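Loading example: each entry is read as two labelled lines plus one structure line.
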Amino acid sequence: MSSPIPDPIEAGLARGWKVIDGAAQARDLALSADVVIVGSGAGGGVTAEILALAGLSVILVEEGALKSSRDFKMREAEAYPALYQESAARKTLDKGVNILQGRTVGGSTTINWTSSFRTPPETLAFWREHYALEGYTPDALAPWFARMEARLHIEDWPTPPNENNEALRRGAARLGIPTGLIRRNVKGCWNLGYCGMGCPTNAKQSMLVSTIPAALDHGATLLTRARAERFVIHGERVEALDCTLLGANGITANGRRARLQARHWVLAGGAINSPALLLRSNAPDPSGLLGKRSFLHPTLVSAAIFPQRVDGYAGAPQSVYSDHFLHTQAIDGPLGYKLEAPPLHPVLLATTMAGFGSAHAEMMRQFPRLGGMLALLRDGFHQDARGGSVRLNGDGSPVLDYPLNDPIWDGARRALLSMAEIQFAAGARGVQVAHESAPRYATWPEAKQGIGALPYRLHAVRVASAHVMGGCMMSGDAKGVTDPDGRYHGLLNLSVHDGSLFPTSIGANPQLSIYGIVARLASNLAVALGGQTTQAPMAAEV
Amino acid sequence: METHRRTFLKASAVAALVLAAGGGLYPLTRPAQAQPFVLDGEARAALHAIVPALLDGALPADPTQRARAITATTERVHQTILGLPLATQQEIQDLFGLLALSPARRLLAGVAPAWGEAGEEEVAAFLQDWRTHGLALLRTAYQALHDLVLGAWYSDPAHWAAIAYPGPPEALS
């Protein structure tokens, strides 16, 4: 049947949006604009809207395809290959961490779980103290966060948490651990639970349905299925960008190329692809830190079996969190962690949980009664934290080298213990942590002893991350790759506007950090490039 | 215990030699540009033997249905691989190239008969061994097979009823 949901992409294309599908090109392309933005996620989307509304001509380049609500069928088999980097199976170099990142118009905002947090004040304080980012105070950023919260309908979520999130709240409460409710960027949300496969009702205010349509309505051009291959650099200026146009499969080249030209360039391809493009381009690297100090939130997972139905696939995927364990020790001490719940979908669960054969099949048969919990380790603050570095494969594709060190393993052990204790306190009858050697624990004392004694090493613990930060680290003292305005040291007409700017991990889901910080950078850039001053962009009424 | 340990060390040394030989062999046969994954011959037979070991307990009991499900899953894994970046397809090609070599099968996986004749318990034992093996390469190979096969199985709507998953709301899917 045809969907009852109006499709804003279809409507925009009918209005005459300039969208060029790289896969459909039979000839090479040559395009130019005031500003070319590479990447259409949180950073690229916000920048595109602000610059287009300031009257600048903008081209937005995206490696993924333009999909819309009519394509979002809530099926993992289709969603992961179509919407994620490397079919949602992107790995770090030693394959110790599985990375979830978007690769579609809207980037990760199209497939994230809608959790919206302002940058924690303690993270900003650390940046000011260690990276001379004096302008990064909660007060200075507050209006920018407020502006993006208004733009993207980031508000308290009034609907009661689903049982999967309620279990986190309930278990934590019984242990005296405080929790909070997560604000979400949704408008008219149906509470379905499939945010990770693209919102089928356009309720999620991702870049796909907010800033990018606004930019296109103001004359911006969107070039999709175009892989930004390398910048052509002369002296201290980027002169052009060469792109490989991809075939309809999104993987192989279709034989055509695009050469783009611009006065100014904004790089917003995410914290793996942005540094990689600069590395492929042999960009100047005066700090020596390009592609270095990349940080994940290494994420541990614990599943629990409850006597009652949990239906972890249904309802807003993330609505409850606890920051308790971010505050139980100094920020540069043993790694702290944020607790949240993940949605449970068959493939995500089956691949995340260790083991195979009858034991795995038995766990999967418990599917409706399974709950899940996540711990996001806050990396980048500890004195031994070097994070990762972006490298290039032989074919130029990027890979993140992210050695998992002892402070991370120590955090992993404590995080798995905390989660198991909360799950038992919430009424779980069994806890299964994502670890190759862990049996199912039936009681908290058994889990406490067992988890404490597990080996913590590469490939034994299943580690994931949905957040990649750093690699184009900003700093106020010229020691960074970029300055506090996101300007790239060594290239006069290049700015970086994405999570790769962050000198540490955020310690919270990063989308609102990117929205707010980039809104400020892009507004300053619009002025610097001679754009008209405009009112803050607001959401269109529907 | 001591005997077991010595056997293990010896096996690891041999394994390292096989890997070195394999590593030396592949660059000669490898095209300069990564090519799409191809599943044929012994590589397909290996996957066909690995699928039922990973899916034991989930596959139907009826022999005809079971055989059909294994074949379908093997093909679904194949299609999943073809959706990965070419560099990753090449890595998986190398893994199956290794599994298809009979010395590697015998020494690294400890599976004596050809894949088509290997017993399910034998295959399960090799997977269990690779799961926590001392060589990181074999652990990552295990995890790739784990994720590919279990992912392919549970992505198929035909297998959702068995885990009481109702699937997404029909009106919108």
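Chain A has a mean pLDDT of 96.
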